[in-house]
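HOLO CASE FILE
Compound: iron/sulfur cluster
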Amino acid sequence: VKTISQDRGVLHRYYQELYRAWGAQHWWPANSRFEVIVGAYLTQNTAWTNVELALKRLRSAQLLSMTGIRRVAPARLEALIRPAGYFRQKARRLKTFVAFVDEMYRGSLQRMFAQPTSELRRQLLELNGVGPETADSILLYAGNHPVFVVDAYTRRILGRHAILPENAPYEEIRARFESELAPVCQRSGIHIESTPTQRSAHSPSRMSRAKRSTAAQVYNEMHGLIVNVGKYYCRSQEPRCEQCPLQRFLPQASRIQADSRHL
Ligand code: SF4
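Model generated. Tokens follow.
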């Protein structure tokens, strides 16, 4: 795939700009590793508000745990997570995940996350229903492994800013972010506890406050910041470039196109 932009250092400047504008994003909103994992499965093809409802129902039924998902009858699990959509498929996938941890790691997430990143990533990608975005969400937000999560917002921003084509391979985008954010990761003084701003996605949670390497912290924040850009500014229709903190990075040709859409 042809790289459009030749500026190899721009993404760490995006990070600095967004972090300066909005501060820490406090991802992921969860109290346990397992809650992050369930959320990562449930959020596939649905809005987060629906996931929250499904998680609330699991929590109320005292089933938001490895033991709970292991023991619950498939039909009951399907009924509880119904608000998240694709509930039969997602129920099956959650059961498959727990069976995987039981078989490979004697039921211990701690043992699972103690694996080297690349090995665990390979294993997760072999599970039914786990694509790169889900695998990396689990690795980064539940396991604090240093991998960058690529989503549709990331692709849209890269495409509109002519950094990479929107349909570039996942691995190419991930590698690009990880290499360009390296200068930020090597610097000390990442402000994990900064004051939430109006653009902070979540209140601090037990998982967002967990100890992690600087690289994992930077990837954690960058994904959250990108989600904010996508939700509030870089929408699929009528992007709000004029108010977006990334506007100064927008190539001139893209500005003209964006302006003409508002005529
Ligand atoms: S400046 Fe415009 S195109 Fe660029 S990220 Fe912001 S909204 Fe999207």
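CASE NOTES: The pocket of iron/sulfur cluster is lined by residues 157, 160-161, 229, 233-234, 239-241, 244, 246-247, 250 (CB under 6 Å). The longest helix spans residues 87-105.
CLOSED: yes
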